[in-house]
Amino acid sequence: MRIGVLTGGGDCPGLNAVIRAVVRKGVSTYGHEFVGFRDGWRGPLEGLTRPLGIPDVRGILPRGGTILGSSRTNPFKIENGVERIKANLAENGVDALIAIGGEDTLGVASKLTDLGVHVVGVPKTIDNDLGATDYTFGFDTAVNIAMEAIDRLHTTAESHHRTLVVEVMGRHAGWIALHAGLAGGANVILLPERHFDIEQVAAYVEKRFQTQYAPIVVVAEGATPLEGQMVLQDQGRDAFGHVRLGGIGQWLAGELEERTGKEARTVVLGHIQRGGTPTAFDRVLATRFGLHAIDAVNDGDFGTMVALHGTDIVRVPLAEATRELKTVPMERYTEAEVFFG
Ligand code: F6P
């Protein structure tokens, strides 16, 4: 078989580990051939390819990013997009595709499956918010980066008797905020799943100052206060209507300064959480996903996605993976509240 591989959506540590595992097992165990499609769905759409053999995947296991490049191109939003993809797959002699991506990339994969394209999906996102899999690779790396930042911020916050607001990624789900906040000993954690009361956050911050320690507030980029507590100005959203990185963090620091009379600073971790080398956990998970994805292709089990259930890698229908976003259950959040203040 000749198999195309692509990576779509926001990059995340571990993508190269998947590509390496797919190619290594695909060539050595099954004797398949590979072609890399560049920049997500733009690759098959525009016929942008690169060679993908064993020499091309040598040494990439610890490297962040993706050797294939990525984009958020959606062929269903482009005129004749699907026809162009089918034509380019045929021209490159591609029998099947492995699409590594998040909700959007896998959503496209699922629709293409319904239109007769042979696709197997591999889930990725640092946000860990994909349904149908217990974990996605990239999440553990992001949490570790954020945890290390929080550890460092504790000491500088204490020296200057300041509040430090740490904004982490997570537009719709607060998994990174919750895990990094717990691991880093944050004094308040704010998630998109629950509107927060700015008065209550200020009270936690005050309480923390009373014990001589400076507070760390971890906030997910998509967290918002109770209705009426903040009017998001136009500059708080980007052209796609998403809350701008840094928007909520900056706002919080200003409000907390005003309410507590103590200096506050904001640190926006942003894309640092997505860059660089993956943790051991993410390398292993990504590698196992890759090994099982090529098995699924070899079995002709198209329209499926590999997923982690407990410690097992299983196959689930692609449609199931994109059906529902996996957000933080409230009982997980309230568990953490014992550390607030
Ligand atoms: O979905 C992953 C993610 O990192 C989100 O946490 C974040 O909101 C978004 O991507 C940022 O996307 P971009 O790289 O387009 O700014």
Question: Helicity range of the residues?
Answer: 25-40%
Largest sheet: 7 strands, mixed
The coarse silhouette is elongated
Cα distance spanning the termini: 58 Å
- Number of E-state strands: 11
Low-pLDDT residue spans: none
- Which strands sit side by side, in order, in the main sheet? 3-2-1-4-5-10-11
Order of helices and strands: EHEHEHEHEHEHEHEHEHEEHH
Strand content: 15-25%
Report the average pLDDT across residues: 95
Write the layout of secondary structure elements.
Layout: E1 2-7, H1 15-28, E2 33-37, H2 42-46, E3 49-51, H3 81-91, E4 96-101, H4 103-114, E5 119-123, H5 139-160, E6 163-168, H6 175-184, E7 188-190, H7 198-210, E8 216-220, H8 247-260, E9 264-268, H9 280-298, E10 304-309, E11 312-317, H10 318-321, H11 330-336
Parallel strand pairs: 1-2, 1-4, 4-5, 5-10, 6-8, 6-9, 7-8
Antiparallel strand pairs: 2-3, 10-11
Helix pairs in contact: 1-9, 5-6, 7-8
The structure holds 6-O-phosphono-beta-D-fructofuranose.
Summarize, please:
By secondary structure, the chain is of the alpha/beta class. It contains 11 helices and 11 strands.
